[in-house]
Write a structure and sequence with these properties.
By secondary structure, the chain is α+β, with helices and mostly antiparallel strands. It has 8 helices and 9 strands. The protein has a 4-stranded antiparallel sheet. The chain has a 3-stranded antiparallel sheet with strand order 4-5-6, with helices on one face. The chain is globular, with a radius of gyration of 17 Å.
C-alpha cells in the first residue's frame, strides 16, 4: 500500500534554491552513491536525502493524494524559510547524520506544524506497524507520542537531522567518520536555508521513496 511522507529537502527548488541548499543536496546524494559504503547506506538510499517533518504514513480512509498535495500547498504558502544552522556530521544512536549546531527553533516549529497539520491525512497504524516499532523499548513520553501521531520522535522528542548511514559497526567507525569528514568538508558550518517542503511517495512496500511534489514557501516571507 502506498505511503507518503512530508520532508524537508535542501535544494528542493533546484537552480532557484539557495546555493548552499543545492550544494548540500548534491553532497548528500553523492555520499549515497559511494560504492565502498553501499552496505551502510541501504535505508538512507531508500528513503532519500531529507529531514523528516511528517514520518511515512498511509492515507486515511476518504483522503486522496490530490487533497494531500493541496494541503501541502496551503501549508507552505503561509511559511517563511527555516535554516539548518552550521550543519555538521554527528553520531546519533550508532548511525551518522547531519545535524544543526545553531538554534533549531524554526526547524522544530516547522516540524511540529507539519506533524499536527498533516495528521488528518494519516491512517491509523496497523497492529503490524505497532509491533515493528516495539513500543516497549520507547520511553513513556515516546509511547504517548507514538500513540497520538504514529511516530515517537516528534514535538519535544524531535531532533532535526539528515540521515547519512545505517548503524555503523564499531570496527568501521573510524573509516566512515574520516570519509564523511572529507566528503562534507566544504559544507560543514555553512547555514542552509529550507525554502520548501516536499511530499515523497513509496509506491509499494520496500520501494524507494521518490519526490511526488515540491511546495515552496511564500516568496513574500522567504525573501
Amino acid at each position: 500500500m502506498t505511503r507518503y511522507a512530508v520532508y524537508a529537502l535542501p535544494g528542493a527548488l533546484g537552480a532557484a534554491d539557495a546555493p548552499a541548499g543545492t550544494a548540500l543536496r548534491a553532497a548528500g546524494e553523492g555520499w549515497y552513491a559511494r560504492a565502498e559504503f553501499a552496505d551502510l547506506t541501504t535505508d538512507p538510499r531508500r528513503y532519500g536525502f531529507h529531514g523528516t517533518l511528517k514520518a511515512p504514513f498511509r492515507l486515511a480512509p476518504g483522503r486522496t493524494e490530490d487533497e494531500l498535495r493541496a494541503a501541502a500547498d496551503a501549508f507552505a504558502a503561509g511559511r517563511s524559510e527555516a535554516v539548518i544552522r552550521a550543519p555538521r556530521v554527528a553520531a546519533l544512536g550508532g548511525f551518522r547524520a547531519l545535524i544543526a549546531t545553531g538554534d533549531e527553533g524554526d526547524l522544530a516549529a516547522l516540524a511540529a506544524d507539519a506533524v499536527r497539520g498533516f495528521e488528518p491525512f494519516r491512517a491509523p497504524l496497523s497492529d503490524a506497524d505497532i509491533a515493528r516499532r516495539d513500543p516497549a523499548r520507547l520511553t513513556s513520553r515516546q509511547r504517548e507520542l507514538f500513540a497520538q501521531y504514529g511516530y515517537p520522535y516528534v514535538l519535544d522528542e524531535f531532533r532535526f537531522h539528515l540521515t547519512l548511514t545505517d548503524p555503523v559497526p564499531d570496527d568501521r567507525a573510524g573509516e566512515v567518520d574520516r570519509a564523511l569528514s572529507a566528503h562534507f568538508a566544504d559544507l560543514v558550518g555553512v547555514d542552509v536555508p529550507l525554502r520548501a517542503v516536499a511530499l515523497f511517495v513509496e509506491a509499494a512496500p520496500g520501494a524507494p521513496f521518490e519526490i511526488l511534489s515540491v511546495h515552496p514557501f511564500s516568496e513574500e516571507t522567504s525573501a
